[in-house]
Here is the input.
Amino acid sequence: MTTCLIIGGAGMLGQGLARSLAKGGRLKGAPLSRLALYDVVPAAPPQGGAPAEISTGDLGAPGEAERLVAARPDVIYHLAAIVSGEAERDFDKGYRINLDGTRLLFEAIRAEHQRSGYCPRVVFTSSLAVFGTPLPEVIGDDHVVTPLSSYGTQKAIGELLLADYSRRGFFDGIGLRLPTIVIRPGKPNAAASSFFSSILREPLAGKEAVLPVGTEVCHWLASPRAAVGYLVHAGDIDTAAMGGRRNITLPGVSVTVGEQIEALRKVAGEEAVALIRHQPDPAIEAIISTWPKAFDTRRALDLGFAGDASIEAIITAYLEDQAEARA
Here is the structure.
């Protein structure tokens, strides 16, 4: 039997992961007997499968990480973070949540390991923001990490901590550099990358969307459906094949904003495209300009991670998931 804790369980990925695990009923090669969802706000429990335990709190508060680890979950997903734009605007908050919270969690696991030999699988969500200019057109698995934003720096430090704590045997960690997730359901958030979703999501709903960058901007995208699949696979994978390189860039689709708009035109017509209003935002343009455009992810593919086929497939997956949610 396997038990699982999702930190950040009320967010989009946390909720999608919880639904997938509850539906599948297995994790790390065994039946899932317990699923705990933790966030700053109450998470919605998934339907069916193992009973979900819902709790709230601040991971950075004294004693919180120890309380979560006390139950000794077999698999811990650490998804909680504030997003890139907010981390850049509020330096202190970004480091408190994205770095201090992560270190407190890792330290709580280490303390439990030293007491009892506890050694869980830890899946940490990192970001493409760990890479910074100058960048090649296609980034290989061995490219150096040089973040040029506070968010990217916080995630890069988290990657190094995860690798070292894994090397020391305190836990069995894997860090996932997720592509930018598109199309995110709901409303725009404070992430600098939020517009990649909104220029598709809002027009598909008949609403206006603001485009803060030029159509030549190119980025690495994946659907929420693919991202959840990555998380589930990371909980199951044999990490021995990774050696000491515990952080990995995941498959995605390299696409320009202009290609996104053309895909929208194919799916929803000129009326939808007409709802996109170009309004340049120098702050967002400055952040996005340091981000990578495309990756060679053969290492992830060799480890069994599989992504989306195209931007059209990403839009189709979103429409299918929205229809299912309304049913």
Summary: The chain has a mean pLDDT of 94.
